[in-house]
Amino acid sequence: MLQAPESPLRAAAAPTAPPFPDADLMRVTDLLPPDERARLAGIRAVLQEDIRPLTAAFWNREEFPFGLLPRLAALGLGRLQTDGSSRLFTGLAYMEVARADVSLSALVGIHNELVVGMINDLGSEAQKARWLPGLESFTALGAFALTEPDHGSDIAGGLATTASHDGDGWVLHGAKRWIGAGTIADFALVWARDTADGAVKAFIVETDRPGFTATKIENKIGLRIMQNADIVLDGVRVPDANLLPGATAFSQANELLRDSRAWVGWQAAGIQLGAFDIARAYALERLQFGHQLAGFQLIQQQLSEILGNAHASLSLMVGLARIQEDGHLEMVQSAMAKATTTRLARASVALGRSILGGNGITTDYEMAKLFGDAEVLYTYEGTYEINSLIVARAVTGKSAFV
Ligand SMILES: Cc1cc2nc3c(=O)[nH]c(=O)nc-3n(C[C@H](O)[C@H](O)[C@H](O)COP(=O)(O)OP(=O)(O)OC[C@H]3O[C@@H](n4cnc5c(N)ncnc54)[C@H](O)[C@@H]3O)c2cc1C
């Protein structure tokens, strides 16, 4: 019987490695300058050889692998927003993390796009000095707290958490749901509505402040390594210095979401390449009717479809990185990329799961982990439907939200 792989890279590293071991059929890494190309190859090697084999056990236990944070920091994955990396490199790095493990790519992506990026772009000099060094080295963690129990897709208009100015600080009341790293972060970036002017503003809320509680959401079918939390803010008091001076309207949250939706597109490309890696290795090993699965026409068609989906997604993201680098990225392009790549990702992991037959049902063979994780990509950072509505509104001039 085929054994669960000890090293998922086994097929690629063996002397009998198949052609295109890294599956870069479109030679996308050739678009990077030599220094970034070499750095990306180094990141991929560590992720595939050292980190990926460890993740299924943590995923099964819904446990966060704190011991891996120094490894991620050593790869520079805590400072992608501040180290001058190109958008294409940053995106391909996100993709490689997702190819190894989607939960870790959620941690790295939220960390860079919505925590480091938010403090760097919208924070005060004092806030940057206090938090960025620790964040960049993964010795500090933050959470991005926007979604609420009663407001997900309609958060822009519906946000109900309140912030009231009182003396030399603010008092926050409300609840947040699904907040990534909420139970393990040092602080949460909480979006709340100012009771005085009705504007949505953001605050750094240290997680040890009285009135702040975070409860882990358990029994998820995907992203099980990421610790998502229900957060309650019961009269939490923060000083004036904790208001982010650049975050004084929901439009600033939208600018962050524009970029973080793009990050999910890279995740979707990565999960599909991961599904291809697993499915190809399995199809080359597994014998039925005395032949390798990889030699059957229907299996070949499915492998080809996964790879085509992955490269359609990747090509979309390479195009998006170009306009992002030029400073022309708008929500419509991010929404189109997010919706399209996650739709394809869902199809690709279903094909991959099928190629593994019964062994695709257990995470011992990895693919089932990807199958669950793809569902989260489809839904978070704006659901597939909401992102579709954003695209169609932009090209018709008609809003169909309500
Ligand atoms: C694992 C995970 C991690 C997350 N991490 C974070 C995080 O770190 N920080 C954070 O702030 N949030 C986070 N989220 C929240 C996420 O962004 C929301 O789940 C998402 O925006 C959808 O909101 P909802 O779950 O309330 O669904 P709902 O808004 O209740 O939607 C339910 C269904 O109705 C559909 N729908 C809603 N409105 C319309 C409409 N007008 N037209 C057509 N269809 C509609 C939706 O597409 C969906 O299919 C996370 C979610 C998950 C599952």
TrEMBL record:
Matching entries from Pfam families are given as:
Acyl-CoA_dh_1 (PF00441), Acyl-CoA_dh_M (PF02770), Acyl-CoA_dh_N (PF02771)
Which keywords does the record carry? Answer: FAD, Flavoprotein, Oxidoreductase
User: What family is it from?
Assistant: Belongs to the acyl-CoA dehydrogenase family.
The record's PANTHER family line, in alphabetical order, gives: ACYL-COA DEHYDROGENASE (PTHR43188:SF1), ACYL-COENZYME A OXIDASE (PTHR43188)
Q: Where is the Acyl-CoA dehydrogenase/oxidase C-terminal domain?
A: 250-395
User: Would the keyword Coiled coil turn up in this protein's UniProt record?
Assistant: no
- Ranges for the region named Disordered are 1-21
Descriptive protein name? Glutaryl-CoA dehydrogenase
Give the protein's cofactors.
FAD
- Please give the coiled-coil regions recorded for this protein: none
InterPro entries hit by this protein: ACX4-like (IPR045008), Acyl-CoA_Oxase/DH_mid-dom (IPR006091), Acyl-CoA_Oxase/DH_mid-dom_sf (IPR046373), AcylCo_DH-like_C (IPR036250), AcylCo_DH/oxidase_C (IPR009075), AcylCoA_DH/ox_N (IPR013786), AcylCoA_DH/ox_N_sf (IPR037069), AcylCoA_DH/oxidase_NM_dom_sf (IPR009100)
Keyword Transcription listed: no
